[in-house]
Amino acid sequence: MERNLTILPTNQLLAQVWDYAITRPAKRGEHKKELWNINNPNTKTYIFYAVKVKKNAGKFLEQVKKELNISENIELSPHTLRRCFATYQAISGMPLPVLQKVLGHSKISTTALYIRDRDLSNLQLTERIANNLSRKRASLTKSQIESVINELLTETKKALVKGETIRFPSYYSLTTAITKPRVAMNLQTKKKMNIPAKRVPKIKFSADLKAEVAKKK
């Protein structure tokens, strides 16, 4: 069943869309399938003219994977991105009814299924720690536990921004590294572009942690 869905693009995306709309040449004999109207639903100006849009989107994402050297084991598809968006918004605190409207679902139960079960939020982590401490007869409240978690995350972020390395023995270490400048291809213009060096966060898991994870089948 087809239905209209309103999206909220960023300013960067809007600029890219307008650049594409202005420079894209019209092709004779094209089949016009309306995917995104400009300004209002009554206009006849289209962003994309295509018959097999899903197939084209899949090919584009495959190009992105190659450009960014993303492992073949990592799934990258329009549906994957949609689910990641839903999960991120839910973890960031967006109410489920609001997320339901954003995704265009008729049932809230469908929206709930979009959120990945294995993503652990601060609230869920707090609940787990509280339950564990309760069994050990510890006296910390959920509010106190949440404060400790938030402080840990905040201080971790500050340390990484400063360029410091954080080590949790037997678990993992967090640090930052500077990537090398490189030349890539702009997938829209097909022209080469220079990507400057930048500082990025890095994580290294301990051998013990890797061994424990490997036991899980």
TrEMBL record:
Pfam families registered for this protein in UniProt: Bac_DNA_binding, Phage_integrase
Gene Ontology molecular function terms on file: DNA binding; structural constituent of chromatin
Q: Which residues form the Tyr recombinase domain?
A: 1-130
Instruction: Mention one GO biological process in which this protein takes part, according to its record.
Output: DNA integration
SMART domains in alphabetical order: BHL
* Record's keyword terms, sorted: DNA recombination, DNA-binding
The superkingdom of the source organism is Eukaryota
| The keyword Lipid metabolism belongs to this UniProt entry's keyword annotation | no
What family does the Swiss-Prot or TrEMBL record give for this protein? Belongs to the bacterial histone-like protein family.
Per its UniProt record, what PANTHER family does this chain match? DNA-BINDING PROTEIN HU, DNA-BINDING PROTEIN HU-BETA
Name of the protein? 12849_t:CDS:1
